[in-house]
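Q: Could you predict the 3D structure of Sensor histidine kinase MtrB?
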Amino acid sequence: MSREQETKEGSSAEAGLLSDDAAAEKPLGAGRVGSPQKESAEVDISKAPELSWRHPIRRARYLWRTSLQFGAVASAGLLLAIAFVFVGYFLSHQIANSLFQGRLDQALEESSNGFTNVQTLLDSSDSTGRAEIQQDVLRIVTVLEASGSDSEKQWILIPGSSADEGFISEQSQNDQLSSDDVPQALQDSVNSSEGIFWQSSTLEQNGVEEPALFVGSSISIPQNPNYGLYLVYNLSSSQQTLNYINVVVGLAFGILLLVVLSIVWVVTRMVIRPLSSTAITAEKLAGGDLGQRVIVRGHNETSRLGRSFNKMADSLQDQIYRLETLSTMQQRFVSDVSHELRTPLTTVRMAAEMLYDGRDEMAPSYKRPTELLYNQVDRFDSLLSDLLEISRFDAGSAKLDATSVDFMAVVNDVLLAVEPHLIRTSTELRMHAPSSPITVEMDHRRIERVLRNLFFNAVEHSESQPIDVYIATSETAVGIAVRDHGIGLSREQIKQVFNRFWRGDPSRKRTLGGTGLGLSIAAEDVALHRGTLEAWGELGEGACFRMTLPLKQDIPMGASPVLLTGDSVDGPTPISAKIPRVSLDDDIDRIDSEPEEEN
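A: Sure. Here are the predicted C-alpha cells for Sensor histidine kinase MtrB:
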C-alpha cells in the first residue's frame, strides 16, 4: 500500500541543539508541539574571596584615571572584546544552523526513503499468521540499518495507543534504546497524524547524554495498523565539529585581540611617552627648577611639541629672571628711599610740630595751612614706616619676637584705642568672647597692629551699623572674626583686598587715615606666625575678616575655631592672605585668571 509522504519541518533549533543547551528538547516540525522550558544553571559566588577582586579593581580604576595609555588600551580591548563576542556568537549561530540544517535534510531524506521502503515491503507481504507477520516485520525493519549513509542511526518500533501490544511488542536495534528515550510529544504526533515528524532532543548513551535527532512516522502492519517507527540520529559528531570550530574561532579572536592591543599599546606609548616626559619637566619647572628641559628626538609632531615647550621654558626663565631682578631693584629702591627720607622727614616733622604748637599766635590765614601740614607730615611718617616694614618683609629680614601673651588683654587694649571712634560714629560693638584669658605665643607688637587694622577698618566701613567680634579657641588655635554690617565687599574685591595700595572705592574719603598697606602688612604679620588671615563679604551685607593663630608656634593650629562670617551668614568664601612679591599688576592679573572658589 502506498501513501503520500508529508515531510514536516520545524523551526530551526539547530543552534541550541549543537550547543551546551542540547539537553533541552526542541519543538516538533510543523509547529504542532511546543518546546519545553529550559532550566538555567546558577553559580553560587557568595563564597568567592573578596580580597582577590578588590585590589585589582581598585588598581584598574586608579590606572584608568591616571594613565592615558592604560585608558586607551583598556577601551580598545573592551570594545574589541564586545565586538568579538557578537561576531563570534553570530558566526557560531550561523555555523550551527548550517550544520543542523544539513544534518536534518539528510536525515529526513533517508528517513523518508526508509519509511517508504518498509511500508512497501509490509504491504506486499502475504503473511497471515501471527508468527509469520512478526518474522516479516523484524526482517523488514532491519533493512533500515543498511539504508542510507549514516551509520550512527538507530531504529525503534513502538506500538501505537490503539495497537495490540501483545501482537508485536516494542522492538529496537539494541537494548539501550527504548520508548522512554523517544520524546512523548513526538510519539503523540506520530500516533495522531500521518506524515513524518522530527524533534531534536538528547539521548543517553553509556551514561552520557548526547544530542540526537528523532524522526518518526506511523506504519501499518497487517491486522495491526497503528505502529510508530522511529529513526534516532546521533548528532555528537556534529556537536564535536561545532565545538572545534568554536575553539578555533575563539583562539583566532584571542590572538587577534592580543595583536590589536599590542599595536594600540605601541602606538599610544609612542605618543604618550613624550607627553609624559613633557609633563614631568613641567612639574619640575613649576617646582622652581627652571633649568629642566625636554629631551627632543626626531622631527615629528611630538618633537615639535618638545621644542616649542623648551622655547617656552627658555622664555619663561628669562622673564622670571628679569622680573626677579626688577623686583629686587624695586625692593632695594623702596628700602633705600625709605631710609633716605627718614632723616629729612624727621627734620620736617620737628619744624611742623613747632609751627603747630604756635598756631594760636598766627594769623587766621596761616593757622589752617599749619594744621594741614602737621596732619600730612604725620600721615607721610606712617606711610614711610609702612614702606620700611614692607621692605623688610620683601627682603626676608622680618623677625618674629614671640612670647606668651594674653590674647584677650591685647584685644582690650585695641578696644580702648578704637572706643573714641565708635562713640564719634555712633557704632555699636558687640563682643562674643570668653571671659577667661587666652595665652598665645605671639609677637605682641605685630598682632596688636593687625587687630588695630581690622577694628579700624570695620569702623571705617560699617556705616554706623553694629560690629560683631567673635573670639574662640580650640586645643591648638585661637580665632577672631571681626564682622561689620556696612557696605560689604564683592567677590572681585575680596580677591584684591590684601593687595598693596588697593582701595575698594577710590572715591570714598578716608575718615581714619591709613596708607593702603595695612591689610598687606597684617597678612604678612599673620603669615609670620604661621596663621591665616581670611576675608569674606557681600555687597550690602557687610564684610568679615578672620584671623587664626596657633597657640604654640611649634604645633600646627588645625581648623579655625570661629566661622569666617560669624553666626549670621553661611557659605563663607575664604581668600588666601598671600602677598604679591613681584608687582601689583602681575598679582592682579594672576588672581583674575584663577577660577573663583565655590562653597
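Q: Anything worth pointing out?
A: The domain at 301-394 is CATH 1.10.287.130 (Helix Hairpins).
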